[in-house]
Specification:
The chain is of the alpha+beta class. The chain folds into three domains: about 150 residues, D-tyrosyl-trna(Tyr) Deacylase, Chain: A (3-Layer(bba) Sandwich); about 300 residues, 2-Layer Sandwich (BirA Bifunctional Protein, domain 2), CATH 3.30.930; about 110 residues, 3-Layer(aba) Sandwich (Rossmann fold). Helix content is about 30%, strand content about 30%. A ten-stranded mixed beta sheet has the order 9-8-20-19-21-22-25-18-17-12. Strands 1, 2, 3, 4, 5 and 6 form a six-stranded mixed beta sheet that branches. Strands 27-26-28-29-30 form a five-stranded mixed beta sheet, with helices on both faces. Helix 13 links the parallel strand 26 and strand 27. Helix 1 crosses helix 2, helix 5 packs across helix 12 and helix 6 crosses helix 12. The radius of gyration is 27 Å and the shape is globular. It starts with a strand and ends in a 22-residue tail after the last helix. About 40% of the residues are buried.
Length: about 625
């Protein structure tokens, strides 16, 4: 069984509709409790044979936390999303009611959220070190349960570190976040709420999860561990283009591309220490009686390369880069969310060795600007994302002017988290975070200054006086994980559509850039000639040769977010002029083929190109998503 406890100022719950046939009958659809301990819980398949014991352990765990936070009010919230292997509904309801009954006998004021219903809820966590805790247990006696996830020391420290939240304006004014006037900064307010409450899971399917399947880009892979996805041809094309684009950005910036293993020795002295300083959970595998872990970043391989290299002060700043396909983090099952939060992901990862903190700050600033350029290439302005800056209180006091300058370049207020102590290896860190329509956030661009791993891994450079020194190291992902880029593009398109706009991808990323729709079979050969010339000039084009009306063909192209749609018939055959429906503007423009080619080239110049990932004729394509 898995539980998450949140000490809350309040929770409001509203039952919307039945989710299962045997949902419990309820009289009240709305519930509210104040100053309470909210317990999100999921009974798992492995608990089916020990339901009574699981309920008993749950009561014990809940009571322990309730005593620590000094509350007698408890709200039980069945939340199947906490696990990828849930029990049957009847078993889950049995445990829920048993736990409620036992707690009431112990004089607790207990209510539970309706079982088997889709529910909406509003919750405000209190935000102290004990306000958000998680537990995992089975009904088996101690010592017989399965191996628990390996959790780093940094993650454990993160649970007790004290954070204070502020908003820093471009003018340099630092205001406590709870006192800041968020008028005109709705996304920043949502981002702050997300960061403080720290509820990473969702109660319903996010819009991008539906879109990624409707557009035949990405889907869940039931044959793998949750959080590992399958990419269909169009999704693989987009992913590959993003990979090429971000790698090109880093190489142009000076990064030297390498390739390193995905698996490392768990007992390696430097790696073992680093595992406890990186806030992530690890996949652990065993081979030949040895333990290994799957990398959760490119740090390990790049640090080992640097440690075995001869580096001079003249080589600094030295930039090493790898696009990891893949990195692995054993995120909690209940927090896995389509493309936003995964266990397997593709990360562009650059590490910069710097001689001292001042040089590291200069590189940090430069890579901050590199991130802005990446966001612009993806079609995002600073209105599309929110910035978080995270540092210790000491760093802020010693570098206030430098941080304010970054805020000024950001051009709008940014969220600042200050720690009373450094719980991991980095200080400071910034992120560009996309805030979606469900008020969830995901980090895209990020840069950190690492104070520890130069020494931990034995990385040294020879200074001008011949002495050996350990560098500061910057960790930079200019775009964030490639999957998260796709998530942000899809969620942003959904937001645009909700606002009355037209959802679309940047032209350079669109799987099909031009769709030709022949009025009849007689014009398919003309479409083939036009398509061949477009392809020879670097345009991805396909032909809807299916036996449908022209209205259905145009509608199908619109549903695929095709940037340019051309109907080809007798008029086009005799005049040589093409009527082009442009999705971006909503206009119908007449242009010659040469002008159409120039239109595409002008808008895709400097971006990578790959050919169409599917057969040119739509009649020859399989349907990947039923």
């Amino acid at each position: 069984m898995r539980i998450i406890t949140i000490h809350a100022d309040f929770i409001e719950i509203e039952a919307k509709q039945k989710a299962i046939k045997d949902a419990e009958e309820i009289e009240q659809k709305k519930l509210r409790s104040e100053d309470c301990l909210v317990v999100f819980s999921a009974v798992e398949a492995r608990d089916e044979s020990t339901l009574a014991q699981v309920a008993e352990k749950a009561v014990h765990e809940i009571e322990e936390v309730a005593k620590q936070v000094n509350t007698k009010r408890i709200v039980l919230y069945p939340y199947v999303h906490l696990t990828s292997s849930p029990s049957g509904p009847k078993s889950a309801q049995t445990v829920l009611l048993d736990v409620e009954s036992h707690l009431k006998k112990k004089q607790y004021n207990v209510i539970h959220a309706p079982f088997g219903w889709y529910k909406a809820f509003d919750l405000k966590a209190k935000g102290h070190p004990l306000s958000e805790l998680s537990r995992e247990f089975t009904g088996e006696p101690s010592g017989t349960s399965k191996t628990e996830d390996v959790v780093s020391g940094a993650l454990k420290a993160e649970e007790i570190v004290r954070s204070t939240w502020h908003v820093l304006s471009p003018s340099g004014e630092l205001v406590a976040a709870e006192k800041f006037d968020f008028s005109g900064h709705g996304k920043l307010k949502k981002f702050y709420g997300y960061e403080v409450v720290k509820v990473r899971g969702v109660s319903s399917e996010p819009p991008h999860a539906k879109l990624m399947k409707e557009l035949e880009l990405v889907d869940y892979e039931p044959g793998s561990d949750p959080g590992n996805l399958r990419f269909y041809p169009k999704g693989r094309l987009m992913k590959s283009l993003i990979e090429q684009w971000v790698t090109g950005k880093v190489v142009n910036y000076g990064g030297m591309e390498v390739e390193t293993p995905i698996m490392y020795d768990y007992q390696h002295p430097a790696l073992e220490k680093y595992l406890n300083r990186f806030p992530a959970r690890q996949y652990v595998v065993e081979s030949a009686k040895k333990k290994f872990f799957l990398r959760f970043s490119a740090c390990f391989g790049q640090f080992l390369i640097a440690a075995s290299s001869s580096i001079s002060y003249k080589d600094l700043p030295l930039k090493i880069y790898e696009l990891t396909r893949y990195s692995f983090r054993l995120e909690k099952a209940g927090e896995l969310v389509a493309l936003r939060r995964l266990r397997s992901f593709t990360m562009p990862d650059m590490h910069t060795m710097c001689a001292d903190l001042e040089t590291a700050k200069q590189e940090f600033h430069s890579q901050f600007k590199l991130g802005i350029g990446c966001m612009k290439d993806l079609g995002f302005t600073n209105e599309s994302y929110e910035m978080a800056f995270r540092c210790t209180e000491d760093f802020w006091k010693q570098n206030k002017g430098w941080v304010v300058n970054i805020a000024r370049e950001h051009g709008k207020p940014m969220l600042v988290e200050m720690w009373n102590l450094r719980y991991a290896y980095f200080d400071p860190k910034f992120e560009f975070n996309f805030v979606d329509s469900m008020d969830k956030a995901a980090a895209l661009t990020t840069v950190q200054i690492d104070h520890e791993n130069g020494e931990r891994f034995g990385i040294q450079y020879t200074d001008s006086d011949g002495s050996k020194k350990h560098p500061f190291i910057l960790h930079c992902s200019p775009s964030g994980a490639v999957e998260r880029v796709l998530y942000a593009l899809l969620e942003n398109a959904h937001i645009v559509a909700k606002g009355g706009g037209v959802p679309r991808f940047p032209l350079w990323l669109s799987p099909t850039q031009v769709r030709l729709c022949p009025l009849s079979d007689a014009f398919v050969s003309l479409c083939e000639k036009i398509a061949t010339e477009l392809e020879q000039n670097g345009v991805r084009v396909d032909i809807d040769d299916r036996n449908d009306t022209i209205q259905k063909k145009v509608r199908a192209a619109e549903l695929e977010w095709t940037p340019m749609i051309l109907v080809i018939g007798g008029k086009e055959q005799t005049s040589g002029k093409l009527a082009v429906r442009i999705r971006e503007t909503g206009k119908l423009e007449e242009m010659a083929l040469e002008k159409l080619i120039k239109y595409v080239k002008d808008r895709t110049e400097g971006f990578p190109y790959k050919p169409l990932p599917l057969p040119r004729l739509l009649s020859k394509r399989p349907i990947f998503v039923g």
